[in-house]
Each structure stands twice: as C-alpha cells, then as structure tokens.
Amino acid sequence: MQPELLILDEPTTGLDKEAEDRLEAILKASSLPCLIVSHDIRFISRIASRVVRLEKMEQN
Predict the structure, then answer these.
(1) What's the total number of domains in the chain?
(2) 56 lies in a domain?
(3) Distance separating alpha carbons of residues 25 and 14, to the nearest angstrom
(4) Is 45 part of any domain?
(5) Is 7 helix (H, G, I), strand (E, B) or coil?
(6) How far apart are CA 46 and CA 48, in angstroms?
C-alpha cells in the first residue's frame, strides 16, 4: 500500500547542510503531497508550492 500523504514535523532540525540538501532533493522529486510543520522559512520557501501560516489567536 502506498502512502497518500507525507507528514514532517521540523524535518531540518539537527541536519547538517548536506543532509538538508539531500532531503530537499528527495521532496522535490517526489510526487507525494507533503504537510510540513517547520520554523525554517528558508527551507520551506525552497520546496513548498503553497504555504499556510498559523498564528496563535489571543482570547478576550
């Protein structure tokens, strides 16, 4: 059975530049949709076709 969605939470944490570049290449070559949660804006801007930004709402 093939996965339908890849979910990654902070995938670049702890990676050196070489490993990050390899991960980027793998994700770009994949046709699998990805949901990526990350604070690494540079990484996201290089691989994402769509970005949704969530912010904490203050309660009154």
Answers:
(1) 1
(2) no
(3) 17
(4) yes
(5) strand
(6) 6
* Closest listed residue to residue 7, CA positions, set 43, 33, 45, 42: 33
Express each pLDDT in 6-57 by its tens digit. 999 999 999 999 999 999 999 999 999 999 999 999 999 999 989 888 888 8
Closest by CA position to 12, among listed 54, 52, 43: 43
For 31, the domain range is: 1-11+24-49
Question: Using CA atoms, how far apart are residues 60 and 50, in angstroms rounded to an integer?
Answer: 31
Q: Evaluate whether 43 touches 22 at the Cβ level (below 8 Å).
A: no
| 2 within a domain of the structure (yes/no) | yes
Note whether residue 40 is domain-resident. Answer: yes
Contacts of residue 23, defined as CB under 8 A and 6 or more positions apart, other chains included, come to: 11, 12, 15
